[in-house]
Structures are given as C-alpha cells and as structure tokens.
Specification:
Elements lengths: L1 H14 L4 E4 L2 E6 L13 E4 L2 E10 L7 E10 L5 E3 L4 E7 L14 H6 L5 E8 L4 E2 L3 E4 L2 H12 L3 E8 L6 E5 L7 E9 L17 H21 L3 H5 L1
Antiparallel strand pairs: 1-13, 2-4, 3-4, 3-12, 4-11, 5-10, 5-13, 6-9, 6-12, 7-8, 7-11
C-alpha cells in the first residue's frame, strides 16, 4: 500500500516544477523631490540636474496557489529604447525591498517613497559595462534569500510584490533608462514546489518540501512500485478462464 502513496506525491511535486513568468503590472519612478506620474510607466534610476531618481516594479502573484512556495526567482529587464547615460562606463544597479504604502499611487510629497526605493534590504544587483549614450541592454538579477522570503510571504498576504531599484554608484549626470518608454519594463520568472506536503499517508500532518533531486528519486520509486504491482496482479482473463 505504501507504494501507491508515492504516486499522488510524485505527480503533485513535478506539476509544480514548471517555470512561471509574470510581467510587471506596474512600474515607474519617484524622484528626490517626491514626484511621481501615474500616467507614465517609464523607469529611471540615477541623478539628473542634481535630482535623484529611483524606480519600482509591481508584480501580481494572485496566480500562485497558497499551497506553493517559490524556490528561486530572477527579475529580468527588457532591452529598452532608454539610454545608459554615464561617463564612467561602469554603474551598479541594485534591487531593494519596499515597505512604503501607496507606491505607484502617491504623486506628490513622496520623498519617503523615493528613499525607500533607494535602500533597505538588498535583493540583488547588476553591474553595467556600457558606453555613454548607448541603449539599455537586457539583463537579469537573481533574487537572494531575503527576496525569496518576502515573495513567499506576499503569496500568503496581499499577493502583490514590489521591488525598488537605484543606481548605488550614481553621481550627477548619470542616469539609467534615460527617456525610456518601454512597457512592461521587466518580468519575474521562478520555480515553485509544494509549500507543505503530507508525507506519511496517515494524515498526521508531517510536512516538508520536495526538491528536484527528491522528485527524481520519487519518480524512480513510483515506477518501481508500478512494476511490482503489475507483476503481482493476476491477469483478469486468466482468472475468468
């Protein structure tokens, strides 16, 4: 009987291993003067005319079932018509956690949102090596453990996930996505597994997650169980005869 219990577990865990991709449902920038325009989903990060810019991305996680957890995730920015404006050739862009309410809604006197998008818990970063005035290239940022914790908490909470972004190396005259109009600006991709699984078949509430190596091991055990049952089960027509 225990061999039969492997099959539901196997199919559930492998079904959740399919990569998921979600475009940002909102994006934009706030500047150090507390301004934001809801009609524009352009993103910018850096400093221009002594005014700082930080951007945000919003992702809708409502398609992820609460029984699932995200095991790894990457935020990928699309290639943009916006420009890389920096004489330094090298700039570092960092993603941050977001604590502020009304991100993407507040339009005036929002300096606190600008600073929130510019620091806090770092989620990951990317270092650019580009020439001044060239178009922004596509790039990826793998999210760290803190980001994964916040992503999984968001699935159980309001099912929205915000990230902030800033150029940590910028001085005046250095701006990423200068005059960008690309929308959506980015997407998130990730793999999921079961958040909790009953592994003893007796309803006792034993829980755990299934990783890829465990999935392959379960696949082998499940196939072995099927082969064993087929050998032991008598042929129906032989029994009738």
């Amino acid at each position: 009987m225990k061999k039969l219990l492997l099959l539901p577990l196997l199919f559930s865990s492998t079904a959740m291993a399919t990569p998921i991709m979600l475009d940002a449902v909102d994006a934009g920038w706030y500047n150090s003067q507390g301004l934001h325009y809801t009609s524009s989903r352009n993103i910018a990060a850096g400093v221009r005319n002594n005014v700082g810019f930080s951007n945000f991305l919003k992702f809708d996680l409502s398609s992820i079932d609460i029984t699932e957890q995200i095991d790894n995730a990457t935020i990928s920015f699309y290639a943009s018509d916006g420009k890389f404006t920096s004489k330094d050739f090298v700039e570092t862009f960092t993603l941050w956690d977001v604590d502020s309410a009304n991100v993407g809604v507040a339009t005036r006197n929002a300096e606190s949102i600008y600073y929130d998008l510019s620091g806090g818990e770092a989620y990951g970063s990317h270092t650019f090596l580009q020439y001044d005035g060239t178009r922004m290239k596509a790039f990826n940022i793998s999210l760290n453990k803190q980001a994964l914790l916040d992503l999984n908490a968001a699935i159980l909470d309001d099912q929205t996930f915000f990230v902030g972004g800033s150029v940590t190396t910028a001085v005046n005259g250095q701006l990423l996505w200068d005059n960008s109009v690309t929308s959506p600006a980015a997407f998130i991709s990730f793999n999921t597994s079961l958040r909790t699984i009953n592994t003893d078949g007796g309803g006792s509430g034993v829980t755990g997650t299934v990783s890829e190596p465990q999935t392959f091991a379960l696949l082998g055990l499940g196939l072995l169980g099927i082969a064993t049952l087929r050998r032991k089960k008598p042929n129906l027509f032989q029994r009738i005869a």
